[in-house]
Amino acid sequence: MNATNAPVSSDTASPRAPSQPASAEFDAVLSRGAFMTLDQFGVIDAVGDDAASFLHGQLTNDVQHLDAASARLAGYCSPKGRLLASMLMWRAADVIRLLVSKELTAGVQKRLSMFVLRAKAKLADATDSVAVVGFAGDVRTALARVFDALPDGVHVHVAGPAGSLIRVPDAASRPRYLWIGPKALVQARLAALEGELARVSPALWDWLDIHAGEPRITQGVLEQFVPQMVNFDVIGGINFRKGCYPGQEIVARSQYRGTIKRRMALAHVASATPAAGLAADDSAGSAVRPGVELFHSGDASQPCGMVVNAAAAAEGGIDLLAEIKLAALDGGTVHLGAADGPPLVFQPLPYALPSEA
Fold this sequence. Notes:
Elements: H1 23-31, E1 33-37, E2 41-47, H2 51-56, E3 71-77, E4 83-92, E5 95-101, H3 102-113, E6 122-125, E7 130-137, H4 140-143, E8 157-160, E9 163-171, E10 174-182, H5 183-193, E11 198-199, H6 203-212, H7 248-256, E12 262-269, H8 284-287, E13 293-296, E14 305-312, E15 318-325, E16 334-336, E17 345-347
Parallel strand pairs: 1-11
Antiparallel strand pairs: 1-7, 2-5, 2-6, 3-4, 4-5, 7-10, 8-9, 9-10, 12-15, 12-17, 13-14, 13-16, 14-15
């Protein structure tokens, strides 16, 4: 199995605090229909006769049997089984495309390319040549003006002259789609859709992803989680029957050795109270970002979890996905940054977790 200590990072800047969209933007998504240009994502293209088999040996999901009508979640792990990246993958003609957090795209492309060796495969960063657009709400009529057919199920992929359209999991009870296509063509078509749909901040997509329970690995949480810690086994990001990939033994052992003691949960934190241990002018809203540790009220000495993703919430405050010890949810309270920091209020995920009993 391939292994390396080469870093994936391509952006060493501190994680950004969630931006606050206007209330009218939330209303557009929840009451009507909206689209958002998703500059927080990058795209890696894999081409060549061996592209599928090569990626199959690197990622947590099955790439060799990925057909043109499907998209799949996958993770890219270190030899220690910790996630270096999360991604959505699909076939576009003779290309396998990977949708990755933009700040990691160059590093992931570089790291994967190190292992191509004699395989007939080439990976390229296609971010500058494509546009990624998210749609949410009542958007099917507008999308039907661009695509002859629309995806009829989650992670169904439809291809057309305008690019790829993929149905992704609903969030806040609203249907969602991703459109990825040639940048100039997509931008021209979007101008015609602005009369029907509201253009809103890309931060809305981050919020929707959180309410869909789908984690995104970013710089702030690089190499922090075995995939099951962020529910990748539940949302279809791991195939336990496929062959070896970096970290596969650890991922499999975590699944089959017994109880999984850490999972990802959905939570909310108010933004008015300063976070303990932070600068006086650093509110909880700016402190809630990927990588911030969580503490249980009963144990101030060591963290019980970590923020995975965070986004401004529709009713104020911050919604987040948190990786956390399951035992910390049995009693007491969980706090941001320190045992006396702002408390988290946990909410149900949109899917059921396996019984850990």
